[in-house]
Amino acid sequence: MKQEIPRMANIPTEEAVAAERERLQHQKRYRQTLRTTIYALVVVAAVAVLIATMFLPVLQVSGSSMEPTLEDGDIIALVKTDDFETGDLVGFYYQNKLLLKRVIAGPGDVVDIDEEGNVSVNGELLDEPYVTEKSLGETDREYPVQVPENRYFVMGDNRATSIDSRSTAIGYIEVDQIVGKVVLRIWPLNHLSLIN
After folding, report:
1. Which helix (H) or strand (E) holds 19?
2. Which of 9, 12, 102, 177 has the highest count of CB atoms within 10 angstroms of its CB?
3. Of these residues, 2, 28, 62, 101, which one is catalytic?
4. What is the model's pLDDT at position 191?
5. What separation in angstroms does the CA of 104 have from each of 4, 57, 86, 118, 133?
6. What does the alpha-carbon distance between residue 14 and residue 142 come to, in Å, rounded to a whole number?
7. CA of 83: how far to CAs of 55, 88, 110, 174, 178, in Å?
8. Beta carbons within 10 angstroms of residue 166's beta carbon
């Protein structure tokens, strides 16, 4: 009877064991790095959304009522505040839409607009370098008018086409409607600028 010689199992060499151990450690480090990176990105995104929602909303301009200051498609940033002055650009909610207009007068101020579109506040003619073409625009008010408490009188820079506080359809803007003040044009990059 023939005796069978046991076959030797393939035992890896020390170099092969070391290489496999290095490969497994590299895989473990890669997974840890990937997991840490994903967690960091999630945290950064959450913080960015929180900041954008609570302090610095970002939105895209739609329409021509603020031309030439802001054009259709511009992307702007607002800062949340409740301190507004004449000339500030503000974003406010009106019928579930966010509109952009310029503050012309505050609570208690008297606004007068003549037939040529010249605007006076408390008897003083406003210097409006941001308006390229003055116009009385679409109005159904008799001037002068006094702005009620806790409200603002706002107008678009494109006076001929803007629907704003000159029309009772929009009327005076309540402080609670205002989201914030426009501070920065982000896009297009060649027009990146602070907004006054």
Report:
1. helix 14-54
2. 102
3. 101
4. 65
5. 104, 22, 5, 12, 16
6. 96
7. 14, 10, 19, 13, 11
8. 28
The one catalytic residue in 2, 28, 64, 65 is 65
Instruction: Give phi and psi for 190, each to the nearest 5.
Output: -75, -10
- What per-residue confidence (pLDDT) applies to 154? 92
State yes or no: is 2 an active-site residue: no
User: Quick check: is 134 catalytic?
Assistant: no
Three-state DSSP class for 65?
coil
- CA distances from residue 27 to 16, 20, 37 in whole angstroms, order as listed: 16, 11, 15
Cβ atoms of 181 and 89 within 8 Å: the answer is yes
Sequence-separated contacts (24+) of 126-131 with Cβ below 8 Å:
126/86, 130/68, 130/69, 130/87, 130/102, 130/157, 131/157, 131/159
Using a cut of 0.85, tell me whether the model's pTM lies above it: no
Split at pLDDT 50, 70, 90, the class of 54 is: low
Residue 145: CA count within 13 A, CB half-sphere: 25
Q: Is residue 11 pLDDT above 90, yes or no?
A: no
Amino acid identity, position 60: Q
| % of the chain surpassing 90 pLDDT | 15
